[in-house]
Amino acid sequence: MSIEHHQHPPVHPPRRTLMGPGPSDVSASVLAALGAPTVGHLDPYFLKVMDEVQDMLREIFQTRNELTLAVSGTGSSGMEACVVNLLEAGDKIVVCTNGVFGGRMADVAGRIGAEVVQIERPFGEVFSVEEIKEVLEKEKPKVLGIVHAETSTGAAQPLKEISEAVHEADALLLVDCVTSLGGMPVKVDEWNIDAAYSGTQKCLSCPPGLAPVTFSSRAVAAMDARKTKVSSWYLDMSMVRSYWGDSRAYHHTAPINMNYGLHQALRLVLEEGLENRFSRHYSNHCALKAGLKAIGVEFAVAEDHQLPMLNAVKIPDGIDDATIRGQLLKWFGIEIGGGLGPMKGKTWRIGLMGESSCNTNVLQFLSALELCLLQAGYELPPGASVAAANDFYRTTITG
């Protein structure tokens, strides 16, 4: 049976403003890099690109870790790579679960036969040093896993003191930095993080497809001391690191063009400068917060622990979640995210990540949200959110 080609038109996606929990908007130069000529995965040019990607990732992770690379797969492959390389069947891991992604880390560990102990906080809350110390003393795990920026809730987890407690207990610290990397400080060496993973599609503003990871010398020593093979052949760092390292031993065909895209995205991060980038994310978060407050929309996370790049806010009473998100997309081409787990239908997740974190998006979103809320019968002073955000920008630009 033949299918005429005209039944399947070429891919021609709509142009959206991506203000959800990821992916974020991608710059034209990153998209152009993705379209550059493909070379072989062992071509001298590509090997040079791999080296430069590693160098730039070290700068952004703020680490000197030799084993720093981009896993061939989305952010979840980075999570799986860290878990399966650090743990063998029977090893104990404590996972701190205060959202969807802590739960995923525990699930992956359980699937490889690790002994998983979960400590939990309600969605949107963070863990204290005291409760971490208590569980470490009681359980004596090999690894403690925790999420730095919980994408499902918008909560930022302080890490420095927790890291000290983990190392005092002679355990390894594994951190999910998927949403935080490139948008707020991730100080791998200063905070003594043993393994961290991220994704390309959040604050790095590259399409999804690669997972930056970094491992400390302590983590590498633990991997080298394994008694059994890593359960995943594809994610086995003992082989993958040979491909990314000096020996260049073929392991798998890396996604060449995705690495071009990441290379350019990392260049843009470092051209802007980490401190400037963190400041931009925080400033746009504050403007958005000022605008939402002016129309009575509250944050779902305590002030001290709000993520600057992922703003989780409470949906006002009587307002239907899906209706508003559908109108934002249909009328304005703006994508925001709904809540997950117990927050489903109760929160919106508004992303201001990487390229998407700009005053244009903040002001456009607030204006669009006002119309959608007014249409739904929600009472608000028209124009108040935009005025409040502009007032913030005016004082920060001129102050």
Topology:
Blueprint: E1 17-18, H1 28-34, H2 44-61, E2 67-72, H3 75-86, E3 92-97, H4 100-111, E4 115-120, H5 129-139, E5 143-147, E6 149-150, E7 155-156, H6 160-168, E8 172-176, E9 195-197, E10 210-215, H7 217-224, H8 237-244, H9 256-272, H10 274-294, E11 310-314, H11 321-332, E12 334-335, E13 337-338, E14 347-351, H12 359-375, H13 384-398
Parallel strand pairs: 1-12, 3-4, 3-5, 5-8, 8-9
Antiparallel strand pairs: 2-10, 6-7, 9-10, 11-14, 13-14
Helix pairs in contact: 1-9, 2-9, 5-6, 10-12, 10-13, 11-12, 12-13
Descriptive labels:
alpha/beta; Aspartate Aminotransferase, domain 1; 13 helices; globular; EC 2.-.-.-; Aminotrans_V_dom; alanine-glyoxylate transaminase activity; Purine catabolism protein PucG
